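Methods: example folding runs. The two proteins below were folded one after another, and each record is reproduced exactly as written to the output file, sequence line first and structure-token line second.
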Amino acid sequence: MGKRYFFSKFDFLFIGFNIVVAMFVLGGMIWGLVAYLRSYTEHGIEVEVPSVRGMIVEDALPILEEQGLRLEVIDSTYSEKVPFGSIVEQDPQPQSHAKHGRTVYVTVNASGKRKVLMPDLLNMSSRQAVMTLQGLGLIVDTVYDYEPSIDSDLVLDVKVDGVSIQENEKIPVGTTVRLVVGFGLGTEEVEVPSLIGLTLQEARSRLLDCHLTVGAVIRDEQEQAGQYVYSQTPRAGALILEGDRVTLRLSTDRSKADFSMEEDPVEEEDEWF
């Protein structure tokens, strides 16, 4: 009995000793792992974030790198109150503390005004056109240019500083535009100009100069660009009322141009013998 009890007690002490040793070893491994992770991730090392607002990115980059920080441009905006290309916002904020190696995200002031595409406003009511233009960030002159037209209060043209702006042309946000609006048919007869060989925009401008407007536009091809007028109705030289419309046929094939329509044929008087 005594011998059996001695071996049982020894076995118990041996097992307990090994457990204690294993706990110490495990604790040491955990402590070493935590120390390694802290060293690897630089845990607890923070730096003060410097202010880079008002600087250009090229100047801000070395300042942040000196503090162990990175820089990334995530957005741009437009303001006339600060220099173009300068940083207007940053995250984290200046004088805050960030972990070593943290990325500072910045927003810069664009080097120029954002541009928008001019929409197709022709034959749109002036009120609707104003709302459309203002929604794009453009300024609409409160003074309109009025031209004779079959339909009154419809937009005939859009101009910037007296120059017509074509559909899909890019113009800066904040630009002031002026609408050319129709006020109905006039009472005077005008001569239809020749439009053969012109683009649609050129033809429209020439008709407006004569107090006429574009009527139906018939395109031989689907694409919008690179098409020229090759036929017009009424023909050049005809007399019609101010504000009346001229129908145009367009094609990318300039060889279709019917230059015989540039003026009405002169009827020869019958000769009497």
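Second run, written to the same file directly after the first:
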Amino acid sequence: MFTGIIEGLGTITKIRPSGQGKRFTIEADYPLDQTKTGDSIAVSGACLTAVVIEGKSFEVDVSPETLSKTTFGRAKIGGRVNLERALRFSDRIDGHLVSGHIDGTGSVKSIKTLGNAIIFTFEVSESLSRYMIKKGSVAVDGISLTINNCDKISFEVSIIPHTAKLTNVGIKKIGDLVNIETDMIGKYVERFVKNDDKKQKTGKSSIDKQFLAKSGFL
């Protein structure tokens, strides 16, 4: 679990085949103190496991599923990525709860300056926008952001100078792809509503004697 508060940037230094997936070597811009093999690290929003750590460099295996769902399918050596190590129970949650499970990708539709903020508009599919609401949360390349406005094919966010400097959003150009993770609360609500609608149509509840027995209540 992550918060979407990026610790710093890293650079992809090696990409090589690993079974049907790939193995990336990434060098962080900051020391990876107290990070050990097996720890989870969000790389531009995708939760990956560090399989080798040497100084500020670490290696991760990227599965075929992750390659197909994220921007990593087009990753290149020299690419800059956002890094965040997993949340500890003692940490403050300054952003929002981010699972590191990418739902899909979006693209930069427009960039404009408004006062001291940079306004980004991202184009996304309706399968992603359905979980977005005005003033709701979204993770873009792992960055926890608040949605200013949204419609069926896009959403808008404000980027402050600190975020632009600390993350890779500051070097994004129109047309660039980004990883998108929508707010998990919306997905749970949709699932509950769908199950409730199903019960109303069938007139049956999912809680019966068989369910109670299987759950250890009988």
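Comment on the second run: The longest strand covers residues 8-18.
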